[in-house]
Predict the structure.
Amino acid sequence: MIKGFIDLNLWGYITVTLVLTHITIASVTIFLHRYQAHNALTLHPAISHFFRFWLWLTTAIVTKEWVAVHRKHHTKCETPDDPHSPQIEGIAKVFFGGLVLYRKAAHDSNTLKRYGNGTPDDWLEHHVYSRLPNTGIMFMAAINVMLFGAAGLIIFAIQMIWIPLWAAGVINGLGHFWGYRNCETPDASRNIFPIGILIGGEELHNNHHAYSNSAKLSSKWWEFDIGWLYIRLLNLAGLAGIRRVAPKIFIERDKAVIDGDTLRAVIRDRYRILALYSCNVIRPIARAERRSSRGSDRKILRRVHSLMSREDIRKDIGACNALNEALQISQKLETVYHFKCQLRELWANTANDGAKRLERLKVWCAEAEISGIEALQDFSSIIRGYTLKTI
C-alpha cells in the first residue's frame, strides 16, 4: 500500500475531504459565481488569485467558460437555448449528465464571445489556467498521494466528482425542479433547502434568480447562506467589497400618495411582489371558488392557483387550456388574473417612460380599490405603501 507523509484515521480522512471540497465550493460560489459572473462584490487581488489557483488545482474549470455558460443560462433560462434546463432537457439528463451539457456549452465559441467578457485576461490565464486546465488536477492528484498515500487517491476521486455532482447536477437540475419559492420569477428556479452550507449557499437558487446581482443569497430570516458569511468576513478583513445586495421590503401603511419612489420599489422588487400577489390574492380566492364549486368545476379549479401564478413557466397547450377553462368558470378568478397581468405589464413594457408607468400604477391601485374584491383592495394598500431600502 502506498504510504503518505500524513497518516490519519477514518474520521481524519473524512474531515480532510470535507474541508478540501468545501474550499472548492466556496471558490465557486464566491469567485466564479458572485464575483466573476454577476459582479456583486469586489475581491482583493490576492484572494481572487487564490480562488482561481485553487479551482485550477481541483476542478480544471476555465473561468471564462464557466462565467459564459452561467450568464447564458440566466439570459436564456428555461428556453431551448438554456445550456442546462431540466424543464427542457428533463431532470434525469441534467442531474446525471449535467457535466456533459456544461462542456458542450463551454466549447461553443459564440457563447464564450458573447457572454464571457470581463473575465481574467492576464499572462497566467493565457499560458497556464486556460491553456493547461488538466495540469492543475494532475498536480492535485500527486499532492494528495504524497500527503495521504493510497487514501489520497480516494480523496482526489471525491474532489473530481464534487462540483459535477453538486453544481452541474444538484443546482442546475434540482434547483429548477424541486424545492420552494420566495419569488415568482419567470423561470422554474427553486430554493432547494433554506440552510445553505453544503453547496455554499447556492441551495437558495430561487432567491438568486430573483436578484442575480446580489452578493447575498438568503432572503428570509430563517435562511442561512454560508457564502455570504465568508464574504462578510472577507469584507471585515478588507479583502472584499460588497457592491450589491437584494432590497429589503418596508410597507408604510399610512402612505396615501403613490410617487416615483413607490414605482421604483415596485419595479425593483417585482418578483417578490408577484409572490405576494399569488399568496395574498390568488390563493385565497382560488380556494374559496373551489370550495363553492361542484362536480367537474371543482376538479378543474384544483390546479388553478399554480396555473395562474406560473403560467409563464408552463407554456404547454394543455396548461393554457386548463387555465382558460378555469377562468371561464369563475368571474372573480378572471378578474384577479387580469389585474395580475396588468401589474406584470407595468415592468415588462420598457418602452414606457417613468411618468406613464407611474400613472398606470396609480390607475391599477384605484381600480383594485373599487373592484369589490377584498383581497385586491388589501393588496392595493400594500402597493401604496411599498418602499425598499438596500441592506
Notes: The beta strands are 41-43, 195-196, 224-225, 240-242, 247-251, 386-390. The mean pLDDT is 92. Residues 69 and 131 are 19 Å apart (CA to CA).
